[in-house]
Write a structure and sequence with these properties.
- Its cofactor is Mg(2+).
- It catalyses: [protein-PII]-uridylyl-L-tyrosine + H2O = [protein-PII]-L-tyrosine + UMP + H(+); [protein-PII]-L-tyrosine + UTP = [protein-PII]-uridylyl-L-tyrosine + diphosphate.
- Belongs to the GlnD family.
- The structure is a single chain.
- By secondary structure, this protein is of the alpha+beta class.
- It folds into 5 domains: 3-197, Beta Polymerase, domain 2 (2-Layer Sandwich); 203-348, Four Helix Bundle (Hemerythrin (Met), subunit A); 367-434 and 446-469, Hydrophobic Seed Protein, CATH 1.10.110; 491-651; 715-918, 2-Layer Sandwich (Alpha-Beta Plaits), CATH 3.30.70.260.
- It contains 41 helices and 16 strands.
- The strands form 3 sheets. An 8-stranded antiparallel β-sheet has the order 9-10-12-11-15-16-14-13, with helices on both faces. A 4-stranded mixed β-sheet has the order 3-2-1-4, with helices on both faces.
Length: 944
């Protein structure tokens, strides 16, 4: 719907507005500043009422473009009324200037919080009063709270600047007369067309596409970020505007419908353009209305409300917000399709010659086509593959798949003309193509390519081919998961996982994944691994468990791709168990023998273990930037090596007592620069669990630390070590043992802003706690991280020694922080006696918040539970923490009533309902009891 087809009359009472403004500025005796001040409440009321009506109409008709046009019209009227009042009663010479809208406002569309871009055109012979009139207008607009981007120039200045500045040229391209001396605007448009636009199409197109590419790179170069920028992101409004600027500049059109008449777009593609524009404007306007500001990032905390405002409803397997975001990403993909189609049309016109841009845009030179060895269907055009004739796909639809295969083999870019024809030929990919042995052979060859399989898959996905060829994949295209853990849509995640696999396969990840780099060359079933990686999340968005549903899909799909029965069963198992290794490594105690035996029973063979290791790495790597770190790699390697021992029959049959004795003697031998008495005295401090689970290097370091502390006569001490490869910083605490010690340390870490990744908890034979807290690294530079760790250590020492009160420091840190209401994760507590032979395992799952770990461990202490080890795992906004505990006499918790009490207390604190139940203070604030003097321990802790 064009701007002039909308009824704007009910938005503002123009007669009343003009009369009120006329009244306050007409008095000649009234000072200028008083006139400005008197205009403000009148104009502000009209703006507020008009925008509120526009908001209600948006909720009613759902049209984003109509809303943007209404707000633009409201702004026009405010400026016109202000201009007329200024010219009549303040600066009469104002009627010799013109006020024009430029940029986005020039298109007649405006979001509620957008800048207002104005161009004040002056005649060649201008006066100070003309400029003062402009200043008066601007000051009133600024006082009203509008963000006004403005320029005051003559027509000659505009033309001169537009020739040298592409930003100014783009702004003038969208110029629109608002009020004042219209002849000046007409003169600018005429001269701009003749003196700037004529014969400069290639230059403008190259600049705009380069600008777009730079913007995409800055925004992450993917349209599938789960918190996209609606204005500047890939597939957003700015991309649509760039398309229209290019079309308008080159084809000299005013509306997208004119591109249909010129044959640039089909009618369906023009409707796609308009629908995308309307949808993106609806989202943007809703965002501005909801936040009360020019918010362009569609963040998690507003996605749910936007989805509700736009009328989305939940469906089985997908919430309303996930359906809304899937629609958003499909629209973003459509914008990419339109970009390719327009570039293809421009290339056909041979409209552009721009060095370095021939891969993406247009060349003035005549096409130079070359044969591609091994094919008659496709030819090369300046490094890009295109069709030998327009009917290639119609004659043989399998050629759509073959097109990408040849591109991969020859290392060619894709010609936009071929992509345009492909987009218009997607319906040719039917069941016959999907079941074609040749098509599936070609696809499997691309998927397992030694070159860049992720690039080919992404190109197939962008063109819509991948989802048509594998309909199950098509169901997860543009699907987002409403959580803070996954950074990309499901389809983008799967393609990035294949990219991570290719990196390992090609030996380019030795520094990041030393074990996977060593294992990968010995993988015999490469096809199995690539297929499993591509399909592991293909069943997301369904009501049932996506691992089980994905396994069923794989069982049906693998034979079609050419895999035999054995390979198919292996893919099925990998998809069904693709979370097993990750969850075991991150949430279970790897030093508990039963953890390893349970895991080994499910894996059963070394071949499966190797495949599962690499699949797990690729899955985590593809979640998003910063999700993978060396610490997770270390956990996976630890689990792999322990399981390898068991599967290969190398697990030690020597008794635990004998192994501990050997470890103790090794420690004594390593302390060779000490006296014999000190060596044995300090080695005897450590219990068997410590000696069997901590490396000899760390044992020596810890023992020297204890001895040094004793020499200084300190009851409390900390030691810090950073590890850049594992992205972990260790803080080791030596203190008198205390039931609440871990809780206090966790609270101190929370107060210092540190995220705990793991906790190694031990007690010495003389009654002291030797706890090592592993926190996520924050700084890349070692010195910076050491300073941070020192600050955290001092906080721990100050809290434990009583110099600082934990409630106060946590309260200071969390002051003003709002509770996370974006996500709803019902608290869950699972108590199991089957995961360990000696202890009870308590697994809690809930929404993360500051001080949560401190609260949970304090509750466990209140319940007289002894924590033997803890695994702290965060998945975005969700935490899964696992505690290995016994009662005070070292036995498992088996009483059902006792388990029920533990569950109730933990759920209460996780839901922040524990408040005064324990401490009489807000949740997240723990008052530690005084630390006792060191006494023989009443318990023995093992290491996590």
């Amino acid at each position: 719907m064009a701007r002039h087809d909308i009824d704007f009359s009910d938005l503002i009472d123009l007669v009343r507005l003009k009369a009120e403004c006329e009244e306050v500025v007409s008095s000649p005796e009234r000072p200028l500043l008083d006139k400005r001040s008197a205009l403000l409440p009148i104009l502000r009321r009209a703006s507020t009422e008009g925008r509120e009506k526009a908001r209600k109409l948006l909720d009613k008709d759902g049209s984003g473009l109509n809303c943007a046009r209404r707000i633009s019209w409201i702004q026009d009227q405010l400026i016109c009324v202000l201009y007329e009042a200024t010219g009549r009663h303040v600066y009469p010479e104002a009627d010799t200037i013109a006020v024009a809208a430029v940029g986005g406002y020039g298109r007649g569309t405006l979001a509620p919080g957008s800048d207002i871009d104005l161009l004040f055109l002056l005649p060649e012979k201008n006066t100070d009063n003309m400029r003062k009139a402009v200043e008066f207008l601007l000051y009133v607009l600024w006082d009203l709270g509008f963000k006004v981007g403005h320029a005051t120039r003559t027509v000659e200045e505009c033309i001169r600047l537009a020739k040298s500045d592409m930003t100014i040229r783009t702004a003038i391209l969208e110029s629109r007369d608002i009020c004042g001396r219209r002849a000046l605007v007409s003169e600018l448009e005429s001269r701009f067309d003749k003196e700037v636009v004529a014969d400069t199409g290639p230059e403008f197109i190259a600049a705009k596409l380069a600008e777009r590419d730079q913007r995409h790179k800055k925004a992450g170069d993917t349209r599938y970020l789960v918190e996209p920028n609606v204005k500047e992101g890939k597939g957003g409004l700015r991309d649509l505007h760039t398309l229209f600027w290019i079309a308008k500049y080159y084809y000299r059109v005013r509306e997208t419908t004119e591109l249909v008449k010129l044959g640039v777009l089909s009618r369906e593609e023009a409707r796609t353009f308009e629908k995308a524009d309307d949808f993106l404007w609806a989202v943007r306007c809703q965002m501005h209305f909801l936040t009360g500001k020019a918010e362009e990032r569609l963040s998690f905390d507003i996605q749910r409300e936007i989805a509700e405002s736009l009328g989305y409803q939940p469906r089985p397997g997908l919430s309303a917000v996930e359906r809304f975001m899937k629609h958003y990403f499909l629209i973003a993909k459509n914008v990419g399709d339109l970009t390719r189609i327009l570039c293809s049309a421009l290339e056909e016109k041979q409209a552009m010659a721009a060095p370095g841009l021939t891969r993406r845009v247009i060349s003035r030179f005549t096409k130079r086509l070359h044969k591609i060895p091994g094919t008659l269907e496709f030819v090369e055009d300046r490094g890009r593959i295109t069709l030998a004739d327009p009917d290639v796909f119609k004659r043989d639809p399998v050629s759509i798949i073959r097109f990408f295969h040849v591109a991969d083999l020859a290392g060619l870019e894709l010609h936009p003309d071929a992509l345009k024809r492909m987009t218009r030929s997607l319906a040719l990919i039917d069941n016959a193509v999907r079941e074609s042995a040749e098509a599936n052979r070609l696809f499997l060859s691309m998927l397992t390519s030694r070159r860049d399989p992720a690039l080919i898959l992404r190109r197939m996905n962008e063109a819509g081919v991948l989802g048509r060829f594998i309909p199950e994949f098509g169901k997860v295209v543009a699907m987002m998961q409403f959580n803070m853990y996954h950074h990309y849509t499901v389809d983008e995640h799967l393609i990035r996982a294949v990219d991570a696999l290719a990196e390992i396969d090609q030996g380019r990840a030795a520094d990041i994944h030393p074990l996977a780099n060593k294992v990968m060359p010995h993988i015999e079933e490469r096809e199995v691994l690539y297929v499993a990686v591509l399909l592991h999340d293909v069943a997301k968005g369904r009501e049932e468990d996506h691992s089980l549903a994905g396994a069923r899909i794989a069982r049906r799909l693998c034979p079609r791709l050419g895999l035999n029965v054995k390979q198919t069963e292996l893919v099925v198992w990998l998809i069904e168990q693709h979370l097993l290794m990750s969850m075991t490594a991150q949430t279970r105690d790897l030093h508990d023998r039963k953890t390893i035996t349970d895991f080994a029973e499910k894996v059963q063979s070394m071949d499966r273990l190797k495949l599962l290791l690499i699949l797990t790495i690729c899955d985590i790597r593809a979640v998003g930037p910063g999700v993978w770190n060396g610490w997770k790699g270390q956990l996976l390697r630890g689990l792999y090596y322990e399981t390898e021992l068991l599967l290969s029959g190398g697990f030690s049959e020597v008794s635990r007592k004998e192994r501990a004795k050997v470890a103790e003697e090794a420690l004594i031998g390593a302390l060779d620069d000490w006296s014999s008495k000190d060596r044995r005295t300090y080695a005897k401090l450590h219990y068997h669990p410590y000696l069997l689970s901590v490396s000899l290097e760390d044992q020596v370091r810890h023992t020297r630390f204890i001895r040094e502390t004793d020499k200084k006569g300190q009851a409390l001490a900390t030691m810090v070590r950073t590890d850049s490869f594992h992205a972990i910083t260790e803080i080791t605490v030596l203190a008198p043992d205390h039931p609440r010690l871990l809780s206090i340390i966790a609270g101190a870490c929370a107060a210092a802003g540190a995220n705990i990744a793991d906790a190694h908890i031990f007690t010495t034979s003389d009654g002291r706690a030797l706890d090592t807290i592993l926190i996520n690294r924050e700084f890349e530079i070692g010195e910076d991280e050491l300073r941070r760790a020192g600050t955290i250590s001092r906080m721990i020492e100050d809290v434990l020694s009583g110099k600082k009160r934990l409630p106060e420091v946590i309260a200071t840190r969390t002051k003003g922080r709002k509770r996370n209401k974006t996500f709803n994760i019902p608290p869950s507590v699972i108590i199991s006696n089957g995961l360990s032979n000696k202890v009870t395992v308590i697994e809690v799952e809930c929404l993360d918040r500051p001080g949560l770990l401190a609260d949970i461990t304090a509750v466990l202490a209140d319940l007289s539970l002894d924590i033997h080890s803890a695994r702290i795992t965060t998945f975005g906004e969700k935490v899964i923490d696992t505690f290995y505990v016994t009662d005070l006499v070292g036995l498992k918790v088996t009483n059902e009533n006792r388990q029920g009490s533990i569950t109730a207390r933990l759920k209460a604190v996780m839901a922040e309902q524990e408040d005064e139940l324990r401490t009489g203070m807000p949740s997240g604030i723990i008052a530690p009891a005084p630390l006792p003097q060191a006494t023989p321990s009443r318990r023995v802790k093992t290491g996590a």
